[in-house]
């Protein structure tokens, strides 16, 4: 599995957590940061998936 997929998944989880905390405490800035982190994580995860596909799912 590509490192981008792992990092992307972590960013998505971090973003979900930040968004939830922001929503719970009424902090719209934190909530927005969480949404941005989630989107960035999704993109990074997708890039990692493409890299995996291009490599034929083989590890070096």
How do the helices and strands line up, and which of them pair or pack?
Blueprint: H1 3-25, H2 28-55
Characterization of this structure:
This protein has helices spanning 3-25, 28-55. The chain has two helices and no strands. The longest helix is centred in the last third of the chain and has 28 residues, at 28-55. The chain has one domain (3-21, 28-53).
Please trace the helix and strand order, writing H or E for each element.
HH
Query: What structural category arises from helix and sheet content?
Result: mainly alpha
The number of distinct helices, counting runs of at least 4 residues, comes to 2
Q: Per the principal axes of the C-alpha atoms, what is the gross shape?
A: rod-shaped
Work out the count of structural domains.
1
Radius of gyration: 14 Å
Can you describe this structure in just a few lines?
The chain has 60 residues and is an all-alpha fold. 85% of the residues lie in helices and 0% in strands. Helix 1 (3-25) packs antiparallel against helix 2 (28-55).
């Amino acid at each position: 599995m590509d490192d981008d997929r792992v990092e992307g998944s972590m960013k998505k989880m971090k973003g979900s957590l930040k968004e939830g905390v922001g929503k719970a405490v009424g902090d719209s800035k934190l909530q927005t940061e969480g949404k941005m982190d989630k989107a960035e994580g999704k993109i990074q995860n997708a890039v990692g998936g493409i890299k995996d596909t291009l490599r034929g799912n083989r590890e070096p």
